[in-house]
Every structure is written in structure tokens, then in C-alpha cells.
Amino acid sequence: MKTIKIGIIGGGLMGKEAASAFGRWFALNDFPAQVALTAVCDLNEKVLDWYTALPTVTLVTTDYKELLQSDLDVVYVALPHNLHKDFYLEVLAAGKDLLAEKPFGIDLEAALAIKEAGEKSGRFVRCSSEMPFLPGPQRVIQEVRSGRLGKIIEIKAGFLHSSDLDPNKPINWKRQSQFCGEIGVMGDLGMHALHVPLRLGWKPKAVYAYLQKIIEQRPDGKGGMADCDTWNNATLNTQVDIDGATVPMLLEMKRLSPGETNTWYIEVYGTEGGVKYSTKDTKALWTFARGEEQFWQRTDLGFKGVPFPTITGGIFEPGFADCFMQMLAGYIAEREGFLNGRFGCVTPEEAVASQYAFDAALRSHKNSSVEPITYS
Ligand SMILES: NC(=O)c1ccc[n+]([C@@H]2O[C@H](COP(=O)([O-])OP(=O)(O)OC[C@H]3O[C@@H](n4cnc5c(N)ncnc54)[C@H](O)[C@@H]3O)[C@@H](O)[C@H]2O)c1
């Protein structure tokens, strides 16, 4: 069986998550390709130490050029947003396929340049967003596509965190515009919120955005304070065209959402039915039926329904590590030509579309206006 050699640039939080998924690839049932994480680059030696224990890794380096010169098929890049464009372009120039991290560049201009470089290079490029690979979101997509919902009335989708509520949490690159981007929390959480809507063809045509900077200074970790100048919370009231009607779609991306750890949700309401899913209650799929009485029905989902079956029992509940692995399986399956209609990773077109929406949201908030989103 073919083995695809993988490299990682940026071995932090997400680099390790990817390594862990590649390391238990055998959990996928009858998956027709093997993977081997062979090379890792990070500037931090301590981070690299962690990777030296992994049996497939033969190169750990602080020099990304050394990694790119090695025999690799795919490079997963998990770096701060200010580095996305340069590193993604170098990966493509080195003739490797790219699994990018969101937001696919620090801003719209960078995202467009990455998409163009991907097209020119002919390499396979996709962007990370794992939550929709859980069985719940997959069922939401099926419900919508079934037509059972009738005429769509409204859509709500979001991604909510709360760890930033602690004002003593030290600053890091994710809270500073120069590294994270002016789009702030939209760059962190926005692609996740938009992945399913965009895949369903719901491309916002206008946005009214409310952006908040709530905690504006944080400990700098050296005894002083540092400016925390990114948007903490973003509420985007958007409009989408569905079957000739304009439908409101609310998108929430929040780093300060009391009580929420990593809550991804989507709700779709129609005249005949509805469907709701939230990772807050990982197993629960809610579907609405309208008859003489109206009711929301809960279905407990298990592992069954992930796009790429694994050895895990059908009634066992999935989590973050599972959907991340499913996403990587989706990347490899699509690259190898056996996705066969299953859910695939965010495309460069979708990543760029999200950046158009965030760019318009910045203008909307600044001008207190409803901004059209033109995608060109
Ligand atoms: N898909 C998801 O759910 C998810 C979750 C969190 C973060 N992310 C995204 O992943 C990316 C990385 O985020 P993270 O949370 O892993 O960050 P992180 O800070 O934990 O890790 C980044 C790593 O990059 C290394 N690094 C920095 N500059 C480098 C350079 N020039 N060369 C090599 N290594 C360098 C750092 O030492 C660090 O180990 C971002 O794009 C972020 O938005 C995605």
C-alpha cells in the first residue's frame, strides 16, 4: 500500500494534534493509503524534543529549508498567521502538497496570493477545519440537503471559547494584530463557523458586523503588561440567497463567551423542519417536526456517521482528536482520488470566501454599515 510522507512546519498545539492523528492511522478501517510523519520543523528545541520520541520521525530541524529539501509528499503548516503566506508559498515552490491552517493568510490579500500560487503550482492545497467531520454536522448537512426542512427561515452558526475571560492569562501571538491579523477572532474561529454554510452554498452576500475588544491589556509574561489589540468577539449578521429568497445567517465567533470551552454549533430552521447540533452536547442531534403539535426530537449519535469509518464502536462518542483525524483522512482521500463524494477539507476558494466576509466585516464595523460582499 502507498505510504504518503508528511512533514510539519510549526510543531505547537496543532502540529502535535496532527502528529497524534497520523500516529494512529491504523484506527481507520480499510483506508487505502498509509501515512508517515517523517519530518518536523519548529524554532523551539523543546517542541522538537517531543517529536524525537515518535518512531516515524527521522528529521527534526529548526531550518524549514532543510525540511523542504527532504523527501516529502505533503507539508502541514501550523504557524502564526503572519507567517502563513511566506511559508505556504515556499512549500508550494518546493513542489510539495499543502495542508494549510486557517485563516489561510493573515488577511484577504495574503489569502488571494496563496490561492493563486496554489493554482499556478498545480499542487493539492486544502485548509484545516475539523469540526464538520463529526457525525452531528454530517447529519445537519444531510438534513438540509434532503429538502425536509422546507423553505429555510434562518441559519445560525458559531464557534465559542471562554478561556480569554481570565484577564491574567498572559498575552500570546493570537491576541496581537501583528501576528494574528486585524481580523482577530474571525481569523481564529471564523473559518470553522463558515465551513458548513459555504459547503451548502450559503455564501454571505452582505454583512453587518459587531466587533468587540473587551480585554485590551494582558500580562506580558515578563512582569509587565502588553496591548491585546485584536477583536475578542465578532457577531456577524449576514444575508444569504437560498432558492431565490434572502435569508438571515448569524455567525458568532467569540473568545469571551462565558462557560464555553470549544463550542462549535449550527442551527438551521425551515418552514417544515429544523436541525440543530452543538459540540457542547456532542452526541445530541436535534431535529424539528411540525404536525398538530410541534416538537424537537433528540437523537443520540455515536461514532457511526463519521465520513471515514474506524475501529471505534458505533455507539461510542467522538471528540476533538477524532474529528481532526477524520479531517486528515479527508485530505489524504481527496488527494489520492478516493473521497467518493464524502466530506472534504476546506478548499482554497472557501478559505478565500471566508476572508472576503471578514474583510467586509471590518468595514461594516468601522462604518456601522451593512457592507455588500462581492468576492472579487
Ligand atoms: N484547526 C484548529 O482547530 C486550530 C486550533 C488552533 C490553532 N489553529 C491554527 O493553527 C496554526 C498554529 O496555531 P497553534 O495553536 O498550533 O500555534 P502554537 O503557537 O501552539 O504553535 C506554533 C508553533 O510554530 C512555531 N514557530 C513559530 N515561528 C516559526 C518559524 N518561523 N519556523 C518554525 N516554527 C515556528 C512555534 O515555536 C510554535 O511551536 C494557526 O494558523 C492557528 O490559527 C487551528
From TrEMBL:
Keyword Oxidoreductase: yes
GO terms, molecular function: nucleotide binding; oxidoreductase activity
Gene3D superfamilies found in the cross-reference section: Dihydrodipicolinate Reductase, domain 2 (3.30.360.10), NAD(P)-binding Rossmann-like Domain (3.40.50.720)
Classification via SUPFAM superfamilies: Glyceraldehyde-3-phosphate dehydrogenase-like, C-terminal domain, NAD(P)-binding Rossmann-fold domains
UniProt keyword list: Oxidoreductase
Boundaries of every GFO/IDH/MocA-like oxidoreductase domain copy: 139-275
Domain Gfo/Idh/MocA-like oxidoreductase N-terminal: 4-125
PANTHER family hit by this protein: BCDNA.GH03377
Protein name: Gfo/Idh/MocA family oxidoreductase
Source organism: Mucilaginibacter myungsuensis
